[in-house]
């Protein structure tokens, strides 16, 4: 089965966005940037990336959380969609509840592409620091719900975000307009 994972050089690629917007501007050796293998199927790419992370943890390149046993990244920079999703963890999707895997794939994403690779909440929430950056009026309602100022009945993935040391939300005026 061919994968519809976004290729690294595609305009919608998070890898390309991070590389062009940040990583190419700082002195990080390319050998220390670990991208998803976009030549594999979504399932195989998730397994491959989890294996890569486990090797990095074994070599003490990435620390392990003493609390959770999952990898403990120093910082994760995250964004949120208008529906309250983060990473590729979407409202109402079973992957939100994944407790064992470090990396997984979604094959029925409500947002293109349909197949995506994502960290799971145990990995995301084991980070020392998580920074949620949200911009735009189209996300104001989800921001209001996620930060506890709404009577929304469904729990949004963004509401499940935490960090071992500190979680900080960065909002522009439009995203914060319903608070």
Mean pLDDT: 90
CATH architecture: 3-Layer(aba) Sandwich
| Rg calculated over all Cα atoms | 16 Å
Helix content: 10-25%
Helix-strand pattern? HHEEEEEHEHE
Q: List how many beta strands DSSP finds.
A: 7
Distance between the termini: 45 Å
How much beta, percentage-wise? Answer: 15-25%
Account of the protein in words:
- The structure is a single chain.
- The protein is globular.
- With about 180 residues, the chain is an alpha/beta fold.
- The protein is built from 4 helices and 7 strands; from the N terminus they run ααβββββαβαβ.
- It starts with 13 loop residues before the first helix and ends in an 8-residue tail after the last strand.
- It has one domain: Rossmann fold (3-Layer(aba) Sandwich).
- Helix content is about 20%, strand content about 15%.
Comma- or semicolon-separated keywords:
179 residues; alpha/beta; three-stranded parallel sheet; 7 strands; globular; 6PGL; Probable 6-phosphogluconolactonase; 6-phosphogluconolactonase activity
Layout of helices and strands:
Layout: H1 14-21, H2 42-58, E1 63-64, E2 71-72, E3 75-79, E4 103-106, E5 116-119, H3 121-124, E6 129-134, H4 140-146, E7 166-171
């Amino acid at each position: 089965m061919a994968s519809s994972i976004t290729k690294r050089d595609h305009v919608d690629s998070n890898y390309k966005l991070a590389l062009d917007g940040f990583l190419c501007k700082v002195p990080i050796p390319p050998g220390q940037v670990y991208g998803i293998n976009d030549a594999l199927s979504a399932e195989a790419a998730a397994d491959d990336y989890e294996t890569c992370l486990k090797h990095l943890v074994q070599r003490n390149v990435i620390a392990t959380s003493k609390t959770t046993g999952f990898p403990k990244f120093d910082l994760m920079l995250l964004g949120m969609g208008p529906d309250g999703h983060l990473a590729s963890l979407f409202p109402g999707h079973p992957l939100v509840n994944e407790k064992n895997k470090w990396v997984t794939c979604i094959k029925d994403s409500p947002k293109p592409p349909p197949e995506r690779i994502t960290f799971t909440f145990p990995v995301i929430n084991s980070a020392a620091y998580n920074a949620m950056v949200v911009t735009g009026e189209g996300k104001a309602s989800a921001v209001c719900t996620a930060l506890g100022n709404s009577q929304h009945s469904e729990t949004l993935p963004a509401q499940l975000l935490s960090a071992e040391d500190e979680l900080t939300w960065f909002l522009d005026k439009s995203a914060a307009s319903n608070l």
